[in-house]
Design goal:
The protein is α+β, with helices and mostly antiparallel strands. Helices cover 55% and strands 23% of the residues.
């Protein structure tokens, strides 16, 4: 409609500009009329052409709505020529974050208060379908399904599992179910997070006490395992030393000992520090007596 008004205003301004001499005889008045008509015409022309060219900002896509007929084509970010009679509806395809406080019931029937968040974005290829089936306020659909699925999943877990032991598993299952529910209608779910879980104080104290006991038990098992490994190491080292002594003892036969005795005697005889060697009998080792060689020289 604004395009039609701008086009008519432009046409009228042009006609007045060129017909000013017919409207008044005063040249000054004609000049004023031409100036006013020219400004109006210029502004109208700019307004008309602005309807022909649109700019879709980064992080957005556009959907063309022409007299109630929605185009299947999604207009990406950038500069585009469009039908001036169409209305362009923009959708953000950036990541959105919805935070909700949900009252749910656990598997054993306990009331839980849960703060949950879902991070999602619009599938650009399905922006036209979203506009046609849902409109521009898609969060109402997201929140209603989000609440329903969250309660359904939490009802299949105990309060302790939701609060502590399987909290991450609950979040993963929630994200998986949301993806399967929201993908067909044009939404991509990136993450579902359990931000906070509130349970009755008595149950919370019992859960924390049990978790503390389990941690202490795991720590004791770790210490015992470490001590066992150290004992095994010492036993293996002692066994290796004993085996080495045994092998050495088995290898020291009388013949080997005699050979080592002869080799040692030869080395001592060749040494500058050995002075006098008295060989023993077959049962004794050689007797080595030092002699002061300098004293002998002096004599």
């Amino acid at each position: 409609m604004s395009f039609v008004v701008s086009a008519i205003a432009s046409l009228v301004s042009v006609l007045v500009f060129f017909s000013s001499y017919r409207l008044v005889d005063n040249r000054v008045a004609q000049l004023v009329i031409k100036i006013v008509a020219g400004l109006i015409g210029l502004l109208s022309i700019l307004a008309t052409f602005s309807r022909l060219v649109i700019v879709i900002p980064a992080g957005n896509v556009g959907v063309e709505d022409f007299q109630g007929k929605v185009s299947d084509r999604t207009i990406p970010a950038g500069l585009h020529l469009v039908n001036p009679l169409s209305r362009i509806v923009e959708f953000s395809i950036r990541l959105n974050n919805i935070k909700e406080e949900i009252s749910a019931t656990s598997k054993e029937g306990l009331a839980l208060g849960i703060d949950v968040a879902v991070q999602y974005r619009i599938d650009p290829a399905q922006a036209a379908s979203i506009y046609l089936k849902i409109g521009v306020n898609e969060q109402e659909i997201i929140i209603s399904r989000f609440r329903s699925i969250s309660r359904e999943i939490i009802a299949s877990y105990t309060a302790e599992e939701v609060y502590a032991t399987k909290r991450e598993e609950v979040g993963l299952k929630l994200a998986e179910r949301l993806r399967s529910q929201l993908a067909p209608i044009g939404f991509i779910v990136d993450e579902a997070l359990l931000r906070d879980v509130r349970v009755p104080e008595t149950l919370q104290a019992a859960i924390q006490q049990r978790l503390k006991a389990e941690q202490e038990n795991l720590q004791m098992k770790f210490i015992l395992e470490k001590e066992k490994q150290e004992a095994d190491r010492k036993r293996i080292a002692a066994q290796g030393s004993a085996d080495a002594q045994k092998i050495l003892a088995e290898g020291l036969t009388p013949a080997v000992l005699k050979l080592r005795e002869i080799e040692a005697t030869e080395k001592l005889a060749q040494s500058q520090n050995s002075k006098l060697i008295i060989l023993g009998n077959s049962q004794n080792t050689p007797l080595i007596l030092p002699v002061d060689r300098e004293a002998n020289v002096a004599r």
